[in-house]
Amino acid sequence: MQWPRLIFLLGSTALILTTDGIVYVRTKNERGPTAIQAGINCLELLTGAYFYPTESVQIQNIVVFHLHNLSSPSREIELGFLQNHHTGYHEDLDGQKTQHFQLKMMSDKLPRSSIRQQAFIDYKLIDYYVIVVDEFEKLERAMSYISLAYAFNPRGKYVVLYNNPNNRDLDDRFALEALNFMFIKHHSVNVLVAFAIDMMSYAVHTGDPYHGTRMDCGRMKTLKIATVQNGTFRNEALAMEMIRMSKVPPEMESCTFLFCTREAAPFINAGCETGLEIQIMHLLQESMKFNVNVSCSTMERGELEDDGVTWSDLLGLMRNDECDLIAGAFYPDYDVHADFAATTLYLQDYYTWFVQTAGLQSRWKVLLDIFEISTWELFALVLFVCSLTWFLLGTALPELRPHKCFSTCILNTWCVFLGISTNNRPNSNSLRIFFVALALYSINVTTIYTSQLINVFTSPPREHQIDTIEEILNMTTPIGGRMEYEDWFENADEDDLRVSARYSNSDEFQPSEANMRAVAKGRRVILASRAYVRNSHYYGEVHGLTKDVFATQIEMIMEKGFPLLPKFNRIISNLNDMGITGKLFQDFIFNVTILHKIHDIISPDEDDDLELPPNEIVLTLDHMQSAFSTFMMGIVVSCVAYVIHLAETDPLSIVVTPSCRPSGVGEIRWTVVFNETEILGTYNALNHSSFELSCATRGIYHVWVESKGCTAEIYYNTRSLVDLWPMLNRTLSPIKIHQHPRRQQFLVKWEKSKFDIHAMHYCLVVSRDRPQRTLCQALANSAFGSRCGMSTFEILQRMSVEEEKKIPQDVQTTIACTSSRTKQMIKGLKPNTTYFLEVFAIHTHKQNLSYLLGATMIHVNRTRPTQLIEGKLAIGKLSTLGGLALFSFKIPKKSPKNTTLKLMVTPCIGTVNVEIFRKKRQAIKPIIDVYYPRVITIEHAVPGERYQIQITEADEHYRTNRIQIVASTKDEFLNMPQLPDNTTVVEVTQLRTCHATTIAWYSSPDKRKIRYCTYIFKQHTKHQHYSNVKMPSYCELENRDIYQHPQLQQTHCIFSDQANHTEPVPMSMSISNLAPAHYYLIFVTASLGGSGGSLPYRSARVKTHPYCRESAQQPSGKSQQLRTGPFAKKQQQQPRGHLKGGASSHHKPLPQERRNNRLKRNRDEEEDQR
Fold first, then answer.
1. Which domain CATH number covers 206?
2. Please, which pLDDT band fits residue 526 given cuts at 50, 70 and 90?
3. Which member of 196, 466, 576, 727 has the lowest number of beta carbons within 10 Å of its beta carbon?
4. Does one domain contain both 835 and 889?
């Protein structure tokens, strides 16, 4: 079989077959009906799949943009799509559900400026867009028209069909370029791009900018989601899923948006880290899991420039893609909403004019404004009527002369009005009733005035406060605010036009601390938010007009295509419905402001100083300055009058001395009257016999004495003490008090009088109730006050002079006269009582001349003993209480009945006496002359009872500074070793050489392991008893500084286990490397193997031989022979020696009695050793 041959010729070449007949074949027509119908079918398929309606009560609309210079077949595809939708479809489309849309047309026939100048402008946002282009520049041209419309919706859905027969291979490049253009330039992400890859097929692309990692979030990524072949999808299920996929994920953890904020407290606080809007943004972030980079600035929101396209400030930054959204207390604005989108409204704010707070009224006005002027006039009338009534009643009744003087009646009435005591009180009953009625009326008036004065202090009145815009416009103070606030005054209202003419939006009128300080000083008037002022430091310092200028809610602004805007609005609406935004605002009003104020009080900022005048401070006594000024003026005038009157006065002293005793007559009354009108005083001569006036007015003074069966002598003096004694110095001299607690005595010393020393005697007055200002007062309050008929000098002369004066407990005032001595010992003072001491100087050559030389006050404290603890060492200072130390120890209640109390008393140096009391009775016989460590035993101690140990110095001339004491109810001290009964350390004189000696002592009966230490101190060869080098005491042996002592020669420590010994055994120690003919002081201490404290034996004082034998030469080098241990058994008796202990060798010689006692003790101890 032979196949026919086919020849294909391009162009119009014919196909020649071997058979009969000719067939002509033409190339595909890219612009023919088939290609056009394929494009129309593609548009129908994509719009039907992508433009599905949402649940809405309104019909959604579709805009088809027509470009006039489209090439074929794009022009035919667009017209065919319009024709299908213009003519409509049949009702029955094979059972498919129909969709209703509103079809709109846009064209580029007219210039772009006509978009917003048309007679009819549609503001409803477009839902769907269909754009057919044949090149990318025409897409840019179409979008330039679409974006200018008020109904432009970047979040709408776009279908862009590209068909250009000359470009079939660059679908990926065109799709990326178109999607980037729609995303970056117009913030649209819901875009489908259909690219004609041949006459019948289209590649469908979309963009995905928000899915991905942190590195590529916000970058457009193209996705090829479907291929349309002649109006059908190759994979319909996958294509439909990809087309309807959401471009914005529910959570965007990988995306970060630029959040530009403006400082506008309290919505955006300073630093843009806190604020109400910041809190709302945090709530949005928690819901959608996205991130923001907050940019803080003080820029304005921004306004549209004159070109009608460019925006300034923050809106300009957002238009230039430097910000994704902005916030800062922005209220809705029609011009802004035309080009930008905004969130649902939230929160709210009120704006008004803020002016300077009116100052406080003048202080004198405040005191007068409590009552009205008519009330003060009525008070003055009542004062005059009452004064006149007082005068008339006093004239008609038998009253004293002051009640018959009209000026005195006015003064008395005024005093009653003020609620103070009057100098002249009525005697007749009629005038007394009038006086009481006037006093009750005055108390009522004073109470009302005082209560009103409290109200003035809490709410001080101020001057007239500017509170209307008319008053502000009548002022010359400049006014202004933010730039966006000026739009509210651009209308036909007359007052708003006046405000707009003077309105300034410069930096001086922006809400800030510095500008609010200027408002507080009255330099400018600012239109600001009430919430901002409430949050600032000047809340309460500036006044906001009562009437608000405008009130508005707050919103965030972003581009219309911001992907999170629908979710933002849904979340904010939920927050508003649930009351969360309202709760945030209420928390700010009632909590945040208060906390901020507290923070300012605790940590004030120096830059926020108000610099207000002092009279602006509320609730201080400055408001009473006028009253105090009047008071000070009165004091000055009275002082001047007193100085003038002083030249006309003289001192006056009157003394009435009766000649009988108090038992002989009941009462002797005497009265002093001035000029027969004014009674200066009435007294009883038996208990008050003197009357004194330091500045007596010149006139006649009458002394009336009323007595039966008793005569009285009257003495008077009109000369001043300065005249009698020109050199008198009234300066008080200091009084020194030395306390002796052991004897409960006080030594009081004072200085001699500076004048007339030879003629001065002294008396010490001790009182408990009050200080005595004069000697006469002291005598009257003492036991000598009942002696009538005796002068003061005579009483003082009869007083005996005592070196020690005992103060009776039942007498309030005691007088001790010391003649010319300037010291007095007093005793018997009651503990826990305060005493007043006064020293009076008495002139022996001038009668009744005495004055106060000095005064002081003392409080006698009870000496409290130191509490001792079982087995714990306590140290007491005898110098604190003047040679006395008190200790107290309580026997435990759970102790057995036959408990023995042991006390180890160690005088550090010197000799002490020990007394032990139980219930203020001596428990044992006092122990005298304790000069070495001694154990005191109290048999049959009572459980639960407290024993008081009183330790005193045995010799006042030999001071004992400190003592050590340990108390225990057990057989052994807890942390102390048990010492033997004989604690003497002796020298074995038979073994003494020029370089060595041997000492011996009894070991401790304690069964525990004992550590013995010896300390050897070298004494001076000459005058050993008076060496200037201080020898250590018993208490200093445990001090670390003992090893730095300049006289310390050697220290040795040994251990001895006494487990095998039931009784103390002798111990010995040989000490070598000593210097010939020298004295050494040796201490021996015992301790429990290094744990706890140590107890000392008696000290020993030894002397080496002055001459050395040849066999007893000192060992060469540093060799040392030290022999320790008990004596050998061949020794049948204790080694002889002399007891050297007690004080160190540098102390002063003791008195004869002390020396005899010491010699007696030495003889007794030598007999015991034998």
1. 3.40.50
2. very high
3. 727
4. no
Here the tokens at position 339 are 């080009």
Q: Bigger pLDDT: 197 or 1041?
A: 197
Tallying the residues shown for the chain, one arrives at 1170
Say if residue 543 is in the same domain as residue 557.
no
Measure the CA–CA gap between 207 and 172, rounded to whole angstroms.
11
Count CB atoms within 10 A of the CB of residue 817: 22
Q: Assess whether 882 and 919 both reside in one domain.
A: yes
CA-nearest of 354, 316, 347, 321 to 332 is: 347
Q: Tell me the C-alpha to C-alpha distance, in Å, between residue 392 and each of 384, 424, 745.
A: 12, 16, 67
pLDDT at 1080 over 80: yes
Instruction: Region of 300 please: left (phi>0), alpha (psi -120 to 50) or beta.
Output: beta
Integer angstrom CA distances of residue 1088 from 101, 934, 966, 968:
110, 18, 15, 16
Which residue, among 370, 294, 399, has the nearest Cα to 627 in the 3D structure? Answer: 370
- Domain tally, the chain: 8
- Examine the domain organization and report whether 1011 and 872 are in the same domain: no
47's enclosing H/E stretch is helix 33-50
1102 phi/psi in degrees, rounded to 5: -125, 165
C-alpha dihedral sign at 370, 375, 380, 386: negative
Average pLDDT over residues 840-845: 85
Instruction: Measure the CA–CA gap between 122 and 58, rounded to whole angstroms.
Output: 15
884-890 vs 946-953, strand pairing mode: antiparallel
**Order of strands across the sheet that contains 962-968:** 874-877, 962-968, 901-907, 934-938
Q: What is the pLDDT of residue 546?
A: 87
Residue 1116 is which amino acid? S
User: Are 1017 and 1158 in the same domain?
Assistant: yes
Tell me whether residue 600 is in a domain.
no
**Among residues 840, 860, 880, which one ends one of the domains?**
860
Weakest mean pLDDT among 7-11, 127-131, 133-137, 997-1001: 7-11
Backbone angles phi, psi at 483, to 5 degrees: -70, -40
* pLDDT single digits (tens) 563-613: 888 888 888 888 888 888 888 777 777 665 565 555 555 555 444 444 444
Specify whether the backbone of 1038 is left (phi greater than 0), alpha (psi in -120 to 50) or beta. alpha
Domain span holding position 151: 33-90+97-243
Q: Provide the CA 1007 distance to its chain's centre, in angstroms.
A: 61
Please tell me whether residues 177 and 278 are part of one structural domain: no
Distance CA 65, CA 742 (A): 119
Residue 49: what are its φ and ψ, rounded to 5°? -80, -30
Backbone angles phi, psi at 489, to 5 degrees: -105, 5
Main-chain dihedrals φ then ψ at residue 914, nearest 5 degrees: -120, 130
Handedness of CA 845, 848, 851, 857 (dihedral sign): positive
State the maximum Cα–Cα separation within the chain, in Å, rounded to a whole number: 190
DSSP string spanning 362-418?
PHHHHHHTTS-HHHHHHHHHHHHHHHHHHHHHHHHTT--GGGG-HHHHHHHHHHHHH
Backbone angles phi, psi at 370, to 5 degrees: -60, -40
| CATH number of the domain within which 932 lies | 2.60.120.510
Both 164 and 107 in one domain: the answer is: yes
| Final residue of a structural domain among 860, 885, 917 | 860
pTM of full prediction above 0.70: no
Q: Reply yes or no on whether the pLDDT at 434 is more than 80.
A: yes
Task: Output the CA–CA distances (angstroms, integers) from residue 382 to 372, 385, 476, 653, in the order listed.
Answer: 16, 5, 48, 42
Residue 461, φ and ψ in degrees, nearest 5: -70, 150
- The DSSP code for 1073 is S
Q: Is the peptide bond before 73 cis (omega within 30 degrees of 0)?
A: yes
CA-to-CA distance for 979 and 998, rounded, in angstroms? 21
Residues 697 and 728 in one domain: no
Asked whether residue 642 is assigned to any structural domain, the reply reads no
Tokens of 555: 């919103």
